[in-house]
Input
Amino acid sequence: TRTAAGTFGYMAPESFGNSFTPKSDLYGVGASLLFAATGLEPGALPVDRLQVKFEQALVGTVWERQETWLPQLLQRLLAPAPEDRFSSASEALTFLRSPPVPVALTRDAGSNGARRPREAVSLEPPRGSKIVVKEVPGELRILFPPPSLSLEMGTFA
Output
């Protein structure tokens, strides 16, 4: 009998077979980023062939319209097969430091509906976000605010 320990949705698929590598940790980072960006538990999102289908959760958000680097990052961090993920945290950091590659195209009304690349944007968190991003030599630190507590009063009989 095998036992898997961890939080469902944040555990890399290979961890269910008791196989752990640094790439398993990258999967957990991706799941945490997904939760921070959407407020949705990764384990509650649809899955197809072990791939978390998060794209619909980003529709209409700044992550879809302007900050297109996040979906690209999440695709690589949440890849079901370890060999499809970044090889290391350093490689993920290199990806974040590279110029954004536009992947989504928008219709340009001024040119008979021709498709054009979206503009490249910065890695700054969206306005109003409580996420803090700090770059220090050799690291990119992403600080998540603590979850808020909700205390509800009730009547007990």
Summary: Residues 38 and 57 are 7 Å apart (CA to CA). Residues 104-111, 113-121 have pLDDT under 50 and may be disordered. Residues 22-38 form the longest helix (17 residues).
